[in-house]
């Protein structure tokens, strides 16, 4: 029996406030709280709440035959918990039906998977999975990367985290003559089964549904179900889209909610069933292998990374951000970790795009304003991380690290010069230098603390 695999993405970033050069070092709060609250509340009212009510109704009226899947970024969950807890409650009701699957993704809706030199990607996926399990009682078994990002280099990492399957874009450059309406496996790791988005049919709903100039307008559930049955021998039609399609991208007046409510019966009358991603993966053998040497995404006609990482300023911001990874991971400060996740959202890079710039979507006057604002924030964040690191480390730990650094530098210098230096001699010299450098750093910290104390005393007296 042919299946419809219906999946929705939910993500909202923490948008930055206007952050000037003169704020660096003086203001450590980066986010536009009022705007973020207004946006999430508006979308919840127009989309998430009525859409969840519709999905619950469809499950009940179909006696549990209707199935749907979601991936909700950690950043979106945080905002919903804080500003719209009723949306979280409605998702919990959906979870209890047993007809809804929650997928794993990166907590920060980031491109951490593009960085191979550390475990930031794995840490975020683990954090997200724990969040989903704590809220909805499900441990995700299928993975969906940010912006549906996929390439061969990522597959082993996904498999090693224990995921049986992954969602990806059915991009023309990877499908060639193949149809997206089958289950595939990755050439890079055949343990990972792939569900590929049917771009045409997904976009018929997401973008063309209310287009009066479209030759198929109006789109009805019966017409759509007939299209699905044009090739009855295919395994599955993967309909992947943003949840905002219901009520925001396509507002309620277009009839989008009525379309979805009618779809379960239209499908059933034609022998089509609904299935979650894990059900499709468990019930179907791969019909072939897919190789994706270059990253694909679900964005625009290019289906690649160009909306986020095409120009110099985007790559500069991306590299500067992830250069901080090791230092951030050595911090235990909750606020630093919290801000670290929020600054990784792919939206910040999208706002810097010079090719896909959208004034109605972007909160900045230009991509360059977005870049300057972000880099100002990143400069302050970097200073905070550095100050935390030097303030938190003990004199003994600092001395040990300095010794290690100097010993490596001595060995490297000896190798370059071709000279042989005895370990005793190296150790002795290193100890002397390390003690000297450590004393210098400790003295600098002492002076900094005294200066800060004087500033506080001055402020108190002025009051």
Name the features.
463 residues, 5-stranded mixed β-sheet, single chain, 52% helix, 7-stranded beta/alpha barrel
In N-to-C order, the SSE pattern is EHEHHEHEHEHEEHHEHEHEHHHHHHHH
| CATH top level label of the largest domain | Alpha Beta
Q: How many helical elements? A: 18
* Stretches with pLDDT under 50, minimum 5 residues: none
Q: What is the residue-mean pLDDT, rounded to a whole number?
A: 90
Beginning-to-end CA distance, first to last residue: 76 Å
Biggest β-sheet: count, sense, barrel? Answer: 5 strands, parallel
Number of strands: 10
> Do you know the CATH architecture of the largest domain?
Alpha-Beta Barrel
Helical residue percent band: 40-55%
Descriptive notes:
The protein is α/β, with parallel strands linked by helices and 463 residues long. It folds into 3 domains: 3-290, 7-stranded beta/alpha barrel, CATH 3.20.110; 306-392; 395-462. Helix content is 52%, strand content 9%. The strands form 2 sheets. Strands 1, 2, 3, 8 and 9 form a 5-stranded parallel β-sheet that branches. Helix 1 (33-61) links the parallel strand 1 (3-10) and strand 2 (68-72). Helix 1 packs parallel to helix 3 (85-96), helix 14 (334-343) runs antiparallel to helix 16 and helix 17 (395-417) crosses helix 18 (423-462). The radius of gyration is 26 Å and the shape is globular.
Which secondary structure elements does this structure contain, and how are they paired or packed?
Blueprint: E1 3-10, H1 33-61, E2 68-72, H2 74-83, H3 85-96, E3 100-102, H4 120-136, E4 142-143, H5 152-160, E5 165-169, H6 172-175, E6 183-186, E7 193-197, H7 199-206, H8 221-228, E8 236-242, H9 256-268, E9 273-274, H10 277-283, E10 289-290, H11 306-309, H12 312-322, H13 325-329, H14 334-343, H15 347-350, H16 367-392, H17 395-417, H18 423-462
Helix pairs in contact: 1-3, 1-9, 2-3, 8-9, 12-16, 14-16, 17-18
């Amino acid at each position: 029996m042919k299946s419809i695999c219906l999946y929705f993405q939910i993500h909202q970033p923490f948008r930055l406030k206007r952050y000037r050069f003169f704020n660096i070092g003086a203001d450590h709060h980066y986010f536009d709280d009022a705007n973020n609250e207004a946006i999430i509340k508006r979308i919840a009212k127009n989309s998430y709440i009525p859409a969840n009510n519709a999905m619950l109704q469809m499950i009940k009226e179909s006696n549990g035959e209707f199935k749907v899947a979601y991936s909700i970024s950690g950043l979106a969950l945080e905002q919903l918990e804080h500003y719209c807890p009723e949306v979280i409650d409605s998702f919990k009701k959906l979870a209890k039906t047993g007809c809804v699957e929650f997928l794993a993704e990166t907590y920060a809706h980031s491109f951490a998977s593009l960085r191979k030199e550390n475990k930031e990607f794995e840490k975020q996926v683990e954090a997200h999975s724990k969040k989903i399990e704590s809220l909805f009682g499900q441990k995700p078994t299928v993975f969906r990367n940010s912006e549906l990002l996929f390439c061969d280099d990522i597959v082993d990492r996904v498999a090693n985290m224990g995921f049986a399957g992954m969602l990806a874009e059915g991009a023309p450059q990877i499908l060639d003559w193949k149809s997206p309406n089958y289950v595939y496996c990755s050439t890079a790791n055949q343990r990972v089964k792939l569900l590929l988005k049917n771009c045409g049919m997904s976009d018929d709903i997401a973008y063309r549904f209310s287009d009066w100039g479209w030759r198929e307008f109006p789109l009805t559930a019966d017409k759509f179900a007939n299209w699905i049955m044009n090739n009855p021998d295919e395994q599955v039609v993967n309909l992947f889209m943003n949840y905002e399609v219901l009520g925001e991208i396509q507002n309620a007046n277009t009839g989008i909610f009525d379309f979805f409510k009618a779809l379960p019966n239209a499908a059933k009358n034609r022998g089509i069933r609904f299935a979650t991603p894990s059900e499709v993966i468990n019930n179907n053998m791969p019909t072939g292998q897919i190789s994706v040497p270059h990253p694909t995404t679900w964005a625009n006609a290019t289906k690649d990374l160009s909306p986020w990482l095409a120009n110099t300023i985007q790559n500069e911001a991306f590299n500067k951000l992830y250069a901080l990874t090791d230092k951030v991971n050595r911090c235990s400060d909750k606020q630093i970790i919290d801000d670290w996740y929020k600054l990784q959202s792919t939206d910040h890079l999208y706002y810097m795009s010079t090719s896909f710039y959208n004034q109605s979507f972007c909160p900045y006057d230009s991509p360059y304003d977005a870049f300057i604002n972000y880099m100002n924030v990143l400069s302050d964040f970097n200073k905070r991380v550095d100050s935390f690191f030097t303030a938190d480390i003990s004199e003994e730990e600092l001395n040990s690290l300095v010794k290690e650094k100097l010993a490596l530098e001595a060995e490297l210098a000896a190798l370059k010069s071709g000279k042989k230096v005895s370990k005793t001699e190296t150790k002795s010299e290193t100890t002397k230098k390390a003690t000297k450098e450590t004393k210098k750093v400790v003295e600098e910290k002492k002076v900094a603390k005294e200066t800060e104390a004087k500033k506080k005393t001055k402020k108190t007296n002025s009051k």
